[in-house]
Amino acid sequence: MITLTNHLLGAYIDVARYPKLSEVIPDKKLEIVELIEPDEIVLVAARYQPFLEGIEAAPLAVTLGDEMLFIGTSEDNSGFIYYVDIEFGVFLLEQSLKDFVSALER
After folding, report:
1. Do residues 65 and 42 make contact, with C-beta atoms less than 8 angstroms apart?
2. E strand intervals along 1-106
């Protein structure tokens, strides 16, 4: 059985696909290195709340370099995938988890 973990861990985000992100970070690819465990979601969400710019989202994964991926949780952004960089801000990557997973590289 293929799980979300199989699709995400070790996959790469091609930064060039996201013009606003590629303008501000030097990386060309971002590797997903860890998924947030269910028992850590509340703690991680609280830690990142000041950086989410009012976006309602839950932590999903960590990229190499300890930046975070979040998934939208409100009616307006349910399933949206965000890259959150404490230094550079919040960037919308995709409007669905399916589209995000489809865009990942191996």
Report:
1. no
2. 12-14, 29-35, 57-63, 67-72, 81-85, 89-94
Q: pLDDT tens digits, residue range 68-105? A: 999 999 999 999 999 999 999 999 999 999 999 999 99
What's the DSSP call for residue 105? B
> What pLDDT does 2 receive?
54
Task: Count the helices and strands in the chain (H runs, E runs).
Answer: 4, 6
Q: Is residue 14 predicted with pLDDT exceeding 50?
A: yes
28 φ/ψ angles, rounded to the nearest 5 degrees: -95, -30
